[in-house]
Amino acid sequence: xxxxxxxxxxxxxxxxxxxxxxxxxxxxxxxxxxxxxxxxxxxxxxxxxxxxxxxxxxxxxxxxxxxxxxxxxxxxxxxxxxxxxxxxxxxxxxxxxxxxxxxxxxxxxxxxxxxxxxxxxxxxxxxxxxxxxxxxxxxxxxxxxxxxxxxxxxxxxxxxxxxxxxxxxxxxxxxxxxxxxxxxxxxxxxxxxxxxxxxxxxxxxxxxxxxxxxxxxxxxxxxxxxxxxxxxxxxxxxxxxxxxxxxxxxxxxxxxxxxxxxxxxxxxxxxxxxxxxxxxxxxxxxxxxxxxxxxxxxxxxxxxxxxxxxxxxxxxxxxxxxxxxxxxxxxxxxxxxxxxxxxxxxxxxxxxxxxxxxxxxxxxxxxxxxxxxxxxxxxxxxxxxxxxxxxxxxxxxxxxxxxxxxxxxxxxxxxx
Length: 416
What we know:
By secondary structure, the chain is mostly beta strands.
């Protein structure tokens, strides 16, 4: 039956139109989906649409730093602010690079073949974490010595070029060096790209301090949920944890061994925090950037506009034939049901136009299922921010009916 469904799909699905509202100048004052930020002095660097961009630490218009079709990710300022290290996808591989802050040709530092390309849940190989305190080497996580995708180690490679050398910890995920470079705060596990929320199983990360001279190890977190993204500022370690339900930033005092919560976001997770080594942490919140002053404990929003020609935002006709994630036939076979690009499309089995039943550009609608009488369709959607189950009339009449509430779980295909 799949070949028949496929032919129906190719016949009509190309007529679907994705309509995106035009943006006003006011709306352009803040660009969303700014990721993996870093901050130094009066500038921030971040990844947007797979390229690196620079902007003022006060906000404003951003300046493009890279333009390659491959992705450039995880930018990190050198301690003197003159260089930016990053993970770049050039020449069919994924390696560590540096580029002058003023722009120029990226310089490749690592050459061991990367593992991948990996599915999004596994993240990236040769992921840049930062620099050694003296600014002479770039610190990164690599899979080069691992037996499988769960075994990665921490390495450093000289900015001037040369062989990468491993740190002595047997396994390492996210990590940061102490200000004097004598210790590392790290997690042996790396699960930073999973879609888990409030996970409390065996892969929940804990943080440890490892002495690079004595090899002594001290566990500094002990919570059922994940503790990740460590940042060492002075005699304190800052990290993110979802122990209160959302990822927030916490502070661990290495002198008193006490932990306290710093940010208190209740709606969005604090993602990809990174510090300037002094008193500021920049992080992603709801696709935008925030800067936390660790002395006052207060965050301020950066309004950043990334200028582009807006081609991707123009209304356009989209062929979703290669993006269908689910399909089924109605109980009597008169109509077919397709799920693609986060929307649900019923269509006649023989001929006729499809109908966009959900029209939810800000949500992912999925797992659509016909009722036994063919009059209603049950599906899962995250339009509230959490996955819930909904009912809708197959002809598009009436209002959506929400059947579940409370979220906090991952819901799968409903069955009648």
